[in-house]
Amino acid sequence: MGRAPCCEKVGLKKGRWTKEEDEILARYIKEHGEGSWRSLPKNAGLLRCGKSCRLRWINYLRADLKRGNISEEEEEMIIKLHATLGNRWSLIAGHLPGRTDNEIKNYWNSHLSRRAADFRDGVVVNVDLSKLPGGGKRRGGRASRGVVAAAKAGKENKAKEKEKGKGKSKVAEAEQQQQQQEQLEEDDDMTVSTPSSHSQPSATAQSEEQAQASASGVTSDDGPEEDPLALNEEMMSALLGPGSPKLADGSRMDSDSGPSVVVDSDSGPGGPTGDVAQELGDKAIMDWDLMGLDISTADDMWDPLVWDYADMDVVVPGGGHHQQEEVTSDLFFLDNM
DNA sequence: AAATTTGGCAACCGCTTCTTG
DNA sequence: TCAAGAAGCGGTTGCCAAATT
């Protein structure tokens, strides 16, 4: 039996909202409060779908909305948050009071993604996540209620989830995100922090790996103990400005001369453990496969995946190999742009 | 000045998750 | 425990105004 449509579509108005409709909706919500979106249009006398009413209210009519251009601070915030959270616009919007997920999403797509593309021209990494366990599909759908609830409830929820013996629950995930948020809030001026643990080269590589993992839903087996938001300055400068990752020999992989890296785990029945050996243009050859990706414990892409970099190797024509950390670092950017 | 192209934004759509009976 | 309803998220579409030809 099919599920009933969210609203009776016949006879309902679509398209732009009129001033009159806005007034009706705003007045109704002012009197009755938010919620009950399904019945709202009928009660308010609007020929609109409940979802449409909700969207109109959230994205346009709400009193606490901040209208006007996105400031540079907000823009930087968006970039930084997107690097960590990916396309989870509602979470990003949660850090920007008065801004809606839709607004941020549009701003990203129309302004920031272009800048990201400028950067990405240097190296294009196109990992076919569909081959990963769970289809590599981002979990969509409603998250905020659980996330927000978890964020509000905080640690008590965690305790409950532990009691239930669930694995990596949404609540736990939400709490982890909450921790990230807290980290962000601690970082008041939003300057890029470089934890002391990053002072050692190996630690830096590890943090980058974790940051990458956090953004892509892939976590290292060491757990998210370090702040995935703690991008180092090099990463942020590359992220925020023109440029591209440095190669081991000091050259840059830019759009004019740079290689186009395509990593497509088109691996057949073997899944992500199959071969990935792709040409990297005329400058470098990435010769690695996903043998290093241990998916044995992963139910879906959000579960912990363990990378073993032993099989990763980037051969630079003219001699030399890229270190694994550099590969990881590069991938981090690209995966999050 | 008219036609075409481009970019930004509002809104819609499909899917997923959460809630409730 | 399960099914249906409700709510919300992210991707996509389409309109409109500005810019360009």
TrEMBL record:
* Source organism of this protein record: Panicum miliaceum
Name by which UniProt lists this protein: Myb-related protein P-like
Keywords attached to this entry? DNA-binding, Nucleus, Repeat, Transcription, Transcription regulation
Return the SMART domains for the record: SANT
In this chain, the stretch annotated as Disordered covers: 130-274
Q: Where is the HTH myb-type domain?
A: 9-61, 62-116
Q: Where is the composition biased (Low complexity)?
A: 199-216, 256-267
**Keyword Lyase belongs to the record:** no
Q: Where in the cell is it found?
A: Nucleus
> Taxonomically, what lineage is the organism?
Eukaryota, Viridiplantae, Streptophyta, Embryophyta, Tracheophyta
Signal peptide annotation: none
Sorted alphabetically, the Gene Ontology BP terms of this entry are: pigment biosynthetic process; positive regulation of DNA-templated transcription; response to stress
